[in-house]
Design brief:
Elements: E1 12-13, H1 22-30, E2 41-48, E3 52-60, H2 71-75, E4 78-80, E5 83-87, E6 93-96, H3 98-111, H4 119-132, E7 144-153, E8 165-175, E9 186-190, H5 207-211, H6 214-222, E10 227-231, E11 239-242, E12 246-251, E13 256-259, H7 269-280, E14 285-288, H8 292-301, E15 304-311, E16 315-324, E17 327-330, H9 338-351, E18 362-364
Helix pairs in contact: 3-4, 7-9
Protein name: Branched-chain-amino-acid aminotransferase
GO molecular function: branched-chain-amino-acid transaminase activity
EC number: 2.6.1.42
């Protein structure tokens, strides 16, 4: 396995001149919410054409100085990842499948004509930040430290070509529950907008995909729903994914279905983990197409008994109601299903070191 030395990098640590007080931090960690509070430090690494990756630093979280002509501001060369550090049953700290995040990060980079970051550098960057901010783990039940690695194009120029300078950063946010409503299951709105088209960037984790989802997401919220679900761009009939999560469907014969990866759907790491866990239990899981009309019909007949969304932020979330301009329908009882809860419990117990890790997914940090 490659090392940091092979990548020609060594991290420099810079002291924080004014970290948050322990008293104020304790107040934040008692009710962290999601994505609104941030830890004291960040990781920064630069890339320059002809030089490669250089100047790896762990230092105070602070504003980024950018030239007004920086390429990210004009041509949207930007990608990101999301993963969590978990407090383990033995009191230690661990990451869940960070190498999978590193691999997906580079797949996104390739699609947006950005430089690959060595996977060992990605993981070590996360490790360094968790070590610097290990006091930032929430005290609430189910809390974790959400980690956001991202890369932006920083070269100052106006012209449509890949940039020649980039910056990779990692920030951290103490995280509680993703959904604020506290409802046992979420309600989703079927959007008439398109998230991604064949040949586009749907499989890349880039900001543009999420920016395109904001208007439909706002429409969903205005109609009283928690999330939006997108259909395919070509026929506008096949279920793809939510604004930021993959979907699973559970049938009365115990089988599961999840939309297949066609290049328009983000290949979720939680999605992939649940595929494996379900098959470990001997369940039949299919990856294929599933239409909105079939979803509605199967829910009405009772053939479909559960639907759930999954992703790093929200983990596993039951879907209770689906609405569109043609009306709405309820999935199962409208609340959490037994299989949904069982798979969630199995996944979370592995992430938190409460169960065996047969697939070697957990990377312990000490």
């Amino acid at each position: 396995m490659a090392t940091l030395a092979d990548a020609g990098l060594q991290f420099t640590s810079l002291p924080h001149p004014a970290p948050m007080s322990a008293e104020r931090r304790a107040q934040v960690l008692a009710n962290p919410g999601f994505g609104t509070n941030f830890s004291d430090h960040m990781v920064s690494i630069d890339w320059t054409e002809g030089q490669g990756w250089h100047d790896a630093t762990v230092g105070p979280r602070q504003p980024i100085a950018l030239d007004p002509a920086a390429a990210v501001l004009h041509y949207a060369q930007e990608i990101f990842e999301g993963l969590k550090a978990y407090r383990q049953a033995d009191g230690g700290i661990a990451l869940f499948r960070p190498m999978a995040n590193a691999a997906r990060f580079n797949q996104s980079a390739a699609r947006l004509a950005m430089p690959a970051l060595p996977e060992e550098v990605f993981v070590e960057s996360v490790r360094q930040l968790v070590a610097a901010d290990r006091d930032w783990f929430p005290t609430v039940e189910g809390g974790s430290l959400y980690l956001r690695p991202f890369m932006i194009a920083t070269e100052a120029f106006l012209g449509v070509r890949p940039a020649r300078q980039y910056k990779f950063l990692v920030i951290a946010s103490p995280a509680g529950n993703y959904f604020k409503s506290g409802a046992p299951a979420v309600s989703i709105w079927v959007s008439e907008y398109t998230r991604a088209a064949p040949g586009g960037t749907g499989a890349a984790k880039c900001g543009g995909n999420y920016a395109a989802s904001l208007v439909p997401q706002g429409e969903a919220i205005a109609r009283g729903h928690d999330q939006v679900v997108f259909l395919d761009a070509a026929e506008h009939k096949w279920i793809e994914e939510l604004g930021g999560m993959n979907l699973y469907f559970v049938f009365d014969d115990g089988t599961l279905l999840t939309p297949e990866l066609t290049g328009t759907i983000l290949p979720g790491i939680t999605r992939d983990s649940l595929l494996t866990l379900a098959r470990d239990e001997g369940l039949t899981v299919r990856e294929g197409r599933y239409s909105l009309d079939q979803w509605r019909e199967d829910a009405a007949s009772g053939k479909l008994v559960e639907t759930f969304a999954c992703g790093t932020a929200a983990v596993v979330t039951p879907v209770g109601k689906v609405a569109s301009r043609d009306g709405e329908f309820t999935v199962g009882s409208g609340g959490p299903g037994q299989l949904t809860q069982r798979l969630k419990d199995r996944l979370v117990s592995i992430q938190r070191g409460q169960a065996a890790d047969p697939h070697g997914w957990v990377t312990k940090l000490g």
